[in-house]
Write a structure and sequence with these properties.
Elements: H1 3-54, H2 59-79, H3 90-100, H4 104-152
Helix pairs in contact: 1-2, 1-4, 2-4
Length: 154
């Protein structure tokens, strides 16, 4: 394999990993908003049942509502517009060629390295977004369990 073809392969792989990160972030955000919708339905339906029977709110209901509120905050944090980079900077590429006289192979090499720098920066943020989703799923389980316990205690 020549250096030129190796740089092309490296650039293709760097683009693929950045695209995968972009898809992962979109998927996590979509799942988080869906989870919030499910949590809202659970809170209104399961949490509303005890109110109809006795008219009072128990401690378990408050715990379930608190879990829902924290879940909503985690979801908002997950959908916050973090400074992630998923594209190449065309101005940077033009600068490499015009000011530094970079060849096609050098542009491929430098762009692959540039994209991988973004990959590693994005990775840290995506790690926390994934953890946020895991926490939100756990909070949904806590919410439903608390509301069911309150419902069964009545």
């Amino acid at each position: 394999m020549t250096a030129a073809s190796a740089y092309a392969v490296a650039l293709e792989e760097a683009r693929r990993t950045i695209d995968q990160q972009k898809d992962d972030l979109k998927s996590l955000r979509d799942r988080a908003t869906g989870l919030l919708a499910v949590a809202g339905l659970a809170a209104s339906f399961i949490g509303g049942l005890p109110l109809g029977s006795s008219g009072s709110i128990g401690g378990w209901t408050y715990a379930g509502i608190a879990a829902f509120v924290v879940l909503a905050l985690v979801t908002v944090a997950m959908t916050y517009p973090y400074a992630l980079v998923f594209s190449q900077d065309a101005k940077l590429i033009v600068t490499w060629v015009e000011q530094y006289g970079a060849s096609h192979d050098e542009v491929n090499r430098d762009l692959a390295l540039h994209l991988m720098t973004h990959f590693w920066r994005n990775r840290r943020t995506l790690h926390w977004v994934r953890r946020g989703y895991q926490v939100a799923v756990g909070l949904l389980m806590v919410e439903v369990i608390m509301l069911i316990i309150d419902l069964r205690g009545r």
